[in-house]
From TrEMBL:
Substrate binds at K72, N117, R118, M119, G120, F121, N179, N184, N246, T247. Monomer. It is a peripheral membrane protein. GO terms for cellular component: cytoplasm; plasma membrane. Residues 247-268 are annotated as: Disordered. This is Dihydroorotate dehydrogenase (quinone). Belongs to the dihydroorotate dehydrogenase family. Type 2 subfamily.
Amino acid sequence: MDPYSLLRPLFFKLPAETAHEYVTGGLRAIQSIGPARRALRSRYTYEHPALAVECFDTTFANPIGVAAGFDKNARVFPALSDLGFGFVEIGTVTPNSQAGNPRPRLFRLPGDRALINRMGFNGDGADAVHSRLAANTDAAGPLGINVGKMNDSDAETAIDDYRRVFERLYPFGDYFVVNVSCPNTPDEFDEADPDHLRRIFETLQAANEDDVPLLVKIGPESPRESLYELVDIVEAYELDGIVATNTTTSRDGVTDPPDERGGLSGKPLETRSTAVIETLAGYTELPIVGVGGVDSAESAYAKIRAGASLVQLYTGFVYNGPSTAREINRGLVELLHEDGYDSIEEAVGADID
Ligand SMILES: Cc1cc2nc3c(=O)[nH]c(=O)nc-3n(C[C@H](O)[C@H](O)[C@H](O)COP(=O)(O)O)c2cc1C
């Protein structure tokens, strides 16, 4: 029996953000003890050559990553890779520290295997994250860095915010993601406005001397035409991929939605985010990182067949615990085998005409 099935009811008695702090505190403790890290690795890592993915000039041992938001401040990404994840995306990192929204701001919807959050870019800021990354000489898998703006920035200063985080953390990211799709930051201006995006991408690419892979993370609400327009801009500025999707403000598929503002993640988001991936993959050859409602080998495989080269999850990890990556990766190898594929890469986009 997985110990998490015993621990989960205890964690779920705590407020969701407090439980998250306990879990990350535990991971930090483990991370500081070499033999404990090795024990974690041997228990939770599942390795198989069919799982390896070449993407963004980097080798990923497996396609299952931790989505942005879990390790906002780069505190536990080594332990997360010990838990068998093929990569971790830290952040969203903002240039300065900020408190985010008042608590409570994270809510569980256990009946729907979902979460609602309105964290609001709480974080330690780029300098603190820089110190942690510089001190960590033991990063296991590839590291993505998700960059965002301060909550009080306007359209003009937001562009400088992205640039400041990008430049400050530049040496440490195997890829960077511009997050223009958080539903929990103030609606001062439309972050996904095409002209605004052009200016962000132009500014970041001008600073991108070593051509580090640069991606954009989008929300699940965009209609087909807007997705095509976004891809055209992404290609014009030679970005390297798209992360799809962030959380949704919709409550579709939720049995009894609580009266809480924020972004919905988990199972109710799954089909919507897969549909966005399929639309993107039908229109562009750019790699897509698929995220939204993944919690099993089947749901990860659906994202891959829809066109995702890599997959991420957050909510599924909260519900399924430390064996999440191992179980998904083990199941993926079986699903590949059943369909006669020798590798993940052969299955990417199999459902696209
Ligand atoms: C508590 C919480 C905090 C999050 N914070 C961020 C964030 O800072 N930046 C970001 O790009 N996405 C953030 N996300 C969104 C996730 O990265 C992911 O896109 C979304 O939750 C859908 O995946 P899931 O259904 O596997 O959770 C957050 C999600 C949750 C639940």
